[in-house]
Design a protein that fits this description.
The protein is built from two helices and six strands, in the order βαββββαβ. It is flat.
Length: about 120
Amino acid sequence: MPGYMLLLHSQTSKDGEFSAEEIQAVIGEYMSWKNSIEADGRLIGGEKLADEGGKHIRIESGAIRVTDGPYAEVKEALGGFFAIKAADYAEAVEISKTCPHLKYGGWIELREIDEH
């Protein structure tokens, strides 16, 4: 059964939108969803990424360059991921539609994992 990555994208300017109690409730929704996918034998893995933005690593003019990212003008950022098993893209889409990430204004980039 193929694997699929659900790459969770969100707007970067959501500071202060939720209270501490609301944040805990949202985390609970994600954990409940993750647990249900795991119970169905579909979960490969998944994690929230740190909010600090990470590093961008590129080769420019033959030299490796490391910069902070994402840049301040970026409106959306990758905030986390889930890896799941599904029979095909159609089934992976149906599973993705149930992810609470969509409920909170984020969007999901769905990609098949190349097993070769």
